[in-house]
Amino acid sequence: MDLLKVDTIKEARNKLARCAGIMPVTEYAELSGAAGRVLAFDIYSEENIPPYRRSTMDGYAVRSGDLGAAGDMIPTMLKVRGEVVPGTDSSLLTMEAGSCVYVPTGGEVPAGADAVVMTEYCEAFGDSMLAVSRAVSPGENVVQIGEDIAEGDILLSKGRKLRPQDIGTLAAAGIISVPVFVPWKVTVISTGDELVSPDTAPGPGQIRDINSYTIASRSKAEGFGIVRTERIPDNAGAISSALEAAKADSDVVVVSGGSSQGKKDMTAALIGKAADRGVLTHGIAAKPGKPTITGYDEASRTLFIGLPGHPAAALIVYEQLLIDLWRNLTGRGQRRTVKAKVSSNVPSAAGRMTFQLVKLKGDEAEAIFARSGMISPVSEADGYFIMRENQEGVRAGDTVEVFLWE
Amino acid sequence: MDLLKVDTIKEARNKLARCAGIMPVTEYAELSGAAGRVLAFDIYSEENIPPYRRSTMDGYAVRSGDLGAAGDMIPTMLKVRGEVVPGTDSSLLTMEAGSCVYVPTGGEVPAGADAVVMTEYCEAFGDSMLAVSRAVSPGENVVQIGEDIAEGDILLSKGRKLRPQDIGTLAAAGIISVPVFVPWKVTVISTGDELVSPDTAPGPGQIRDINSYTIASRSKAEGFGIVRTERIPDNAGAISSALEAAKADSDVVVVSGGSSQGKKDMTAALIGKAADRGVLTHGIAAKPGKPTITGYDEASRTLFIGLPGHPAAALIVYEQLLIDLWRNLTGRGQRRTVKAKVSSNVPSAAGRMTFQLVKLKGDEAEAIFARSGMISPVSEADGYFIMRENQEGVRAGDTVEVFLWE
Measuring CA to CA, which of A390, B50, B105, B190 is 20 to 30 A from B24? Predict the structure, then answer.
């Protein structure tokens, strides 16, 4: 693999982004199941919320002008004209000067009233008179029509991953069917004569399959569907058959194929054969993560990605390349990072983007080193930071932006 | 509700934590479906990973002592004794002095060898001789037995929410059945004569149900099961029947019952009737969130929580009280917060914990105010910070810890 021919992560992602057929399609999801899905269009409100003036307190709807002189010493006396009953039509309640109407929290403020005075400043005399010991400003304790959501407002924008409160906002606006992106369907193929299932005791020279578990779990965490996970020996015919089969039912085919030169070459050749647009990226300028391969099959609209065998590299490259591609295509913003101070000097790889695992301790990021093939340091890490191609490492005390693993 | 009798959030949570029957039970989950679940016990490794010395490079396994003098100008010649084939037993390969064996990345380093030299420093002469132009240190490019995971190591600790790489670590150690906590099963009941379904156009005095959507979605995001969501008018008999029915099949019953005094009193009375241990907390010292009620039924092991009607308050109290109780009981740590500088002065409520919604803009937290009943500011917010009971607000530029909504 020639360093002159490798792509940066961004170049590799952009090549995939130009494969129009990979653009996620949209569907409508029922509101109660839409949390965690990504919004495919901007959503506008067709209504004013609240649709009527609403009290924020248990109190009496009043005309604020009537209470100009009200105070502890000399309360103002108002006539009680009735009570607003939630869920019923209050339009018949009249509010001429000198009168008031009881309104519970959330109740409609009757026409004619312009404020609500809290019950604790009120004292009833019989059924029909109220002594009020406090003046109120116009609009006090009243939510105006459309103050929460105005007709025509953008409620939520395209690319938003819907949170519980967003589901609440959509419910408030009466939007019960939500346009969302259909998550990619992913097949994960682990190749290697040495791989055995985790339920097996490895024999001499054998090792348990790790990457198909991490990559499938990471895919599911992003909302992707898993079509299947397969473990296949280093047999070109068997791998080719699996790639061909995956084209029929998968949007993305992930091949985790070891990091030795022979295996990298075989994975690249087989992706090149399965994909009618061929191999797009053969090697990326990243450490770890160099032996990464991508390809695209236009006829079946299938994206291929060959990941490094090193578990840390496989997971980080999958996030930075494929999951960030999904985020870009669906209009989501950058992933959130947190700032932290590095606790020791960390070298970078010359000419390559370097991913550095870290554990956070308060505001400090402590570098964790996962040698090739190791997985436990990846569990120990809280996330990673990036050193750019032309960056000569970081020094103890430098601030870095950490991509956090949730 | 008497301010003297209200609990702090912590007191309310501690009262619930002392209801032993609410302690989550454990079950075993299949590894491939365990991501996102919370580990119920510490997991120890019963094996060394890797189980053999593994090469981190494509190269030649050597005895480092043989290469003491090797360099660009005067390479050392070694006899090639064969090749390690991944997945096969390499124990028959011999490594006497002056010899070497080809090992691909991840392959087993044969007995007798103590280092691997990268292929780029090697040149083959025929099938059996190799010129090596670089010395290596003992152990160079070799992962030792148990260096990733040593037998007896704690792999992962109780209370951990399993991430994709943790699934990988468990796979590596051959742990295919994982002890996890059984998530609570939750019934969400919205009460109110004024509530209509989101698919309905509200009539005069009516409003669409928001809280059952936000609370059910938040529950699912935490991994809880939703038994059912119901919308019931302010009818004591109907609500009582729903509470009784929920005791039979739910661990947690959430009643979102409006914030007017009459509704609060009714919710408290009905929870008191349904729960054999009665009402535990009647009002919490929080703003927003005061009208919060909890109760516990020991016979059916059911926890009741009556939430404020205000959507922001309902969601925040549900997180701080119920979800943090779940986190405490399952041994998870505090939720992660991010530090940010407040962009304006923000007042606190005297004697009460104050929750302040914020939107993050870079390192700044901009306060967002949701008046009673409003939901769109909760969607706009990225999270919230807390001002303690005895804290007199924060000033512009002060640093606060923001609980982020994902």
Answer: B190
